[in-house]
Design goal:
Layout lengths: L16 E5 L4 H11 L3 E7 L14 E6 L6 H10 L3 E4 L5 H4 L4 H7 L4 E6 L14 H8 L18 H26 L3 E6 H8 L1 H5 L22 E5 L5 E5 L3 H10 L16 H12 L4 H8 L6 E3 L3 H4 L3 H5 L3 E3 L5 E3 L24 H7 L4 H9 L3 E2 L8
Parallel strand pairs: 1-2, 1-4, 2-3, 4-5, 5-6
Antiparallel strand pairs: 3-12, 7-8, 8-9, 10-11
Helix pairs in contact: 1-6, 5-6, 5-7, 6-7
């Protein structure tokens, strides 16, 4: 198993066996979350394997290379699922059924199995069998229409919202919820995790706050969508940026004071017509000092002004260092520490490098009840593959 510290034995998901069918982005994050919190996650990679895994979120996982399309491949997965608690399946609607590996088959073999189906459009509906990516799921959810500056096209913030938040995180929440329910019923169930619905659910506040006047104006002219001069980013003299979130009057007052301005000589904070002019004024002031100089002014205040940190800077920032918010693995690769923090059974992420495809094939199959003879037969039939890492890797 991946190397962890002594505290790993007390993790919240210890003993939970997860099979993650290899996929892109959201599925690997879902599996990594479960692994970080103690689950034994086996990534079932495709065989014949490609040279490099597309999964950069393989922390704490082991890899088994299996060709589900060969005779014996699907049967091997059925056997694995008999001893598993969770299956994470990222394929388009109908793929698993065509392989004879649909929920009706696997839940009959193991009624306690949590069968998590993580897809963009879900298991039903017009687009269920269609290809798509984060930007498509974001657009269909309605959320994309809210993202973007005034007089510009809507834009997707990387692929964070639909893929990872609406997909990977909410699927992990669904799995943990189903595992908890199983402690009462003793039965597994199917999770239909749609990224469209996941990101729509994340936007519940937008839906339920429509009567509050927060979103009445066109995109890019509202309080939280880059319309307000006190909820915006500003460039500093050294080409860096500061983020301002001074919404409440008492915070806004401290913000204005930090800029060296007098609020009595300025328009009312919520005077929409003055917002464009106020932005220009604030921008000209921020451009006069470096990011570090602005930090020295606004740190230790409640002005809600913070530096926009690059990946290079974020690890060394005092607050993040004090909380050990970032970790380094055996390969000196830095990544965020698992969140949230649990006081008694915290996540203890593996510090070992991510697995190579097929690195643990034999080890996992033996653990799941296959004999050495059966493993040899699967290998000769090209159903499975092994990959022993070279010593210099």
């Amino acid at each position: 198993m991946p190397r962890r510290s002594a505290g790993a034995a007390a993790m919240a998901l210890r003993g939970v066996r997860v099979l993650e069918l290899a996929g892109l982005a959201p599925g690997p994050l879902c599996g990594m979350i479960l692994a970080d919190f103690g689950a034994q996650v086996v990534r079932v990679d495709r065989a014949p394997r490609s040279a490099v895994s597309a999964d950069v979120q393989g922390r704490g996982k082991r890899s088994l290379a299996l060709d589900l399309k060969r005779p014996g491949g699907a049967e091997a997965l059925v056997r694995l699922c008999r001893r598993a608690d969770v299956l994470i399946e990222p394929f388009r609607h109908g793929v698993m059924e065509r392989l004879g590996l649909g929920p009706e088959v696997l839940l009959q073999e193991n009624p306690r199995l949590i069968y998590a189906r993580l897809t963009g459009f879900g298991q039903s509906g017009k687009y269920a069998s269609s290809a798509g990516h984060d930007i498509n799921y974001l657009s269909l959810s309605g959320v994309l229409s809210k993202l973007g500056r005034k007089d510009e096209n809507p834009y997707a913030p990387l692929n964070l919202l639909a893929d990872f938040a609406g997909g990977g995180v909410l699927c992990a929440m669904g799995i943990v919820t189903a595992l908890y329910e199983r402690t009462q019923s003793g039965r597994g169930q199917v999770i239909d995790a749609s990224m469209v619905e996941g990101v729509a659910y994340l936007s519940s506040f937008l839906w339920k706050s429509q009567n509050l006047g927060l979103w009445n104006r066109p995109r890019g002219e509202n309080l939280l969508d880059s319309g307000a001069p006190f909820y915006e980013t500003y460039k500093t003299s050294d080409g860096k940026f500061m983020a301002v979130g001074a919404i409440e009057p008492q915070f806004y007052e401290q913000f204005i004071k930090g800029l060296g301005l007098d609020s009595d000589k300025l328009p009312n904070q919520l005077s929409f017509s003055d917002w464009p002019e106020m932005k220009k004024k604030f921008a000209s002031i921020f451009a006069q000092k470096t990011q570090a100089e602005w930090c020295s002014i606004f740190d230790d205040t409640d002005a809600c002004v913070t530096p926009v940190l690059s990946f290079d800077d974020v690890v060394s920032h005092q607050h993040n260092k004090q909380r050990n918010s970032f970790i380094k693995n055996d390969q000196e690769e830095i990544s965020p520490r698992p969140a949230p923090l649990l006081s008694r059974t915290p996540a203890v992420p593996s510090f070992k490098r991510d697995p190579f495809i097929g690195e643990h094939t034999e080890e996992v199959l033996l653990e799941y009840g296959f004999t050495k003879e059966e493993i040899a037969k699967l290998y000769s039939d090209k159903v499975i593959e092994f990959s022993k890492p070279k010593s210099n890797l």
